[in-house]
Amino acid sequence: MQRDYSQEAIISVRGVSKEFDGRKIIDNVSFDIYCGETFVIMGCSGSGKSTLLRLMTGAIKPTEGSIIIKGKDISKLRTYQLDELRKSFGMLFQYSALLDSLTVEDNVALPLREHTKLDEEIIKIIVKMKLSLVGLRGFEKYYPSQISGGMRKRVGLARAIALDPDIVFYDEPTSGLDPVVGGVIDKLIKDLSEKLLITSIVVTHDMQSVFRIADRVAMVHKGKLIQVGTPQEIKNSENPYIKQFINGLPQGPIDFFKEDIGILEEFI
């Protein structure tokens, strides 16, 4: 589907840098994300992609630059203002982050109980609807330990969309899943984005996933933005970093033996 990128961005990252202990993890990054698109941020471990995700969710503040979400610079918001804006966000964590002591139903209901004053019967109806959307109707009374890893991801996704968010952030959504289950998760991300008009921001290094779901792709390396483009533009890119990464080549400008990955991953 051809998208109109002349529209106003729902997220605008402008000249953003982030330092930890004097070390620049994100270095002068700028890009726009448009309403309804699936925007994928890819890169090696330690590249800074997860730090970008944390910056966009407001979990950490940039050292320099601004992040405008729905017309608001989130780095300048007070805590209660940021909390209010976050009600329009959903988040699927890398390892689902389900509470083992709660049933599937209660995990999905958690944001509804915390952030709304809806009657319990209404919450149960909404939970069933969200679980139906991810193909898990009938699993309400199961606990996370009783279902598979792929099912736990889907429960996490149902929880992420419980409050009907405008924006959903995905942190390595196919990590730890076999290729078939990963494909199921990718299809859900695309289907929910289109059916619910959600803007999706996905951080991943799974190249199959990138090319299945992305409307546009951003490649990050050592905290710098290498290129932003459509999947076809990325596939056809002559940039040596991108060519090496998408083809999984052991030799090239990305030298894994010289990368200071261990130090970076303390923060990313």
Structure description:
The protein is of the alpha/beta class. It has a domain at 36-47 and 82-252: 3-Layer(aba) Sandwich (Rossmann fold). It has helices at residues 49-56, 79-86, 104-115, 120-133, 149-160, 179-196, 207-213, 231-235, 240-247, 261-264; strands at residues 9-20, 23-34, 38-42, 64-69, 72-73, 89-92, 167-171, 199-204, 216-221, 224-229. It has a 6-stranded mixed β-sheet, sandwiched between helices. Strands 2-1-4-5 form a 4-stranded antiparallel β-sheet, covered by helices on one side. Strand 1 and strand 2 form a beta hairpin. It is globular, with a radius of gyration of 19 Å. The model is unreliable at 260-268 (pLDDT under 50).
Attribute tags:
268 residues, alpha/beta, Rossmann fold, six-stranded mixed β-sheet, four-stranded antiparallel β-sheet, 10 helices, 10 strands, 36% helix, globular, disordered C terminus
Q: Give the SSE string.
A: EEEHEEHEHHHEHEHEEHHH
Beta-strand content bin: 15-25%
SS field, number of helical segments: 10
CATH domain topology of the domain at 36-47 and 82-252: Rossmann fold
Proportion of helical residues: 25-40%
CATH superfamily of the domain at 36-47 and 82-252, by name, is P-loop containing nucleotide triphosphate hydrolases
SS elements, strand count: 10
* Text of the CATH class of the domain at 36-47 and 82-252: Alpha Beta
Which strands sit side by side, in order, in the main sheet?
6-7-8-3-9-10
Largest sheet: 6 strands, mixed
User: Helix/strand/pairing class, anyone?
Assistant: alpha/beta
Can you name the CATH architecture of the domain at 36-47 and 82-252?
3-Layer(aba) Sandwich
Q: How big is the Rg?
A: 19 Å
